[in-house]
Amino acid sequence: MFQFTALPPLSLYVHVPWCVRKCPYCDFNSHEMREELPEADYIDALLADLEQDLPSVWGRPVVSVFIGGGTPSLLSAEALDRLLSGLRARLMLPPDAEVTLEANPGTVEQARFTEYRAAGVNRLSIGVQSFSDESLERIGRIHGRREAIRAAESAHAAGFDNFNLDLMFALPGQSLAQSEQNVRTAIDLEPTHISHYQLTLEPNTLFAHRPPSLPDEDTAWEMQTACQDILAAHGYTQYEVSAYARAGRRCRHNLNYWRFGDYLGIGAGAHAKISDAQHQTITRTSKVRHPRDYLQRASGSERVDTERRLGRGDAAFEFMLNALRLREGFESELFAAHTGLPIRTVETPLQEAERRGWIEWNLTHIRPTDEGQRLLNDLLGLFLPEGER
């Protein structure tokens, strides 16, 4: 079915499913912490889960680790150190591998950041979302402006020279000026990376059932473009739809996703995508979602909740779904390298996208135009497998 001559880079995602409180816009697999965090048992479960997955990736180095959630900064430094030590003992993890930990203001302090860094975390992603107390209250966050600023200052003080701030725009009641000030405050804190994305109402969230009043589409677009200009003027280059970085500080882990690389996923509800050169397959899996079930099943086959092998059309579409988010696009040969398919597999939709002015395409490179990125959903729809368009 596929023709892999080599395998894509491999990353590892680790999911920590607990939060202090579930945010009303959040559709991630997160659960409010109603009792003491069973961190020792959960680390045991993560490592047992990983051991079951190892045969599928024998001999492959891991280029990045991302510990997300939920709120991973609820873990003690001791638990995180045991987790990272266990990963190093089981995986080919190079000394320079990017190791990111998500943290929320209000659940961290400088001493803990220092300990996380000593354990081997070399990149933080801090879920600020806004520097407005009013906006933070409206979107259900447990921290305020002061805690958000203190978290970034603590990252610097702990010696992190690489960290991301997450920001949202088009928040309930937010004006254009407020969205711009939000970005300016973030820039003043000198992160190396800023994720700037629009609040959307996802199914099965509290906001989906009780929608707040949000800025209209034209205002949201005005916010996005104005903030893009501010970020660019201060040296933050947009390299993906919602990602901006200083030179040399693009997120390696997310780049591997966007280039259709492989990744293991351990933890409650974690997803994985693994290519197999021997059997010429691409397989997606997910683990059981509820932390209680995961803790009981992590050492056996019942930890896997879903498993499916991608067909040619699925693989081609998923590659485009990710790679066309990148401002620079991708080298044509990357398509064959990471899907095991020739580029002619998507030649017809590429021609149509070029005709509509949504991509620029030559013998070696494919990239979305500004119009293509603005109409990204329409562009991606051209690559859907037949029968799904």
Radius of gyration: 21 Å
Discrete helix count:
15
The percentage helix is: 25-40%
Q: What would you call the shape? A: globular
Q: What fold name stands as the CATH topology of the largest domain?
A: TIM Barrel
Structural class: alpha/beta
Largest sheet: 9 strands, mixed
Q: Tally the structural domains.
A: 2
The amount of beta strand, in percent, is 15-25%
Regions with pLDDT < 50 over 5+ consecutive residues? none
The level 1 CATH classification of the largest domain is Alpha Beta
CATH superfamily of the largest domain: Aldolase class I
Describe this structure in words.
- The protein is α/β, with parallel strands linked by helices and 389 residues long.
- The protein has two domains: 247 residues, TIM Barrel (Alpha-Beta Barrel); 78 residues, Arc Repressor Mutant, subunit A.
- Helices cover 38% and strands 22% of the residues.
- The chain has 15 helices and 17 strands.
- Strands 9-10-8-7-6-5-4-1-11 form a nine-stranded mixed beta sheet, sandwiched between helices.
- A hairpin with a 4-residue loop joins strand 12 and strand 13.
- Helix 1 packs parallel to helix 2 and helix 2 runs parallel beside helix 3.
- It is globular.
- It starts with 9 loop residues before the first strand and ends in an 8-residue tail after the last helix.
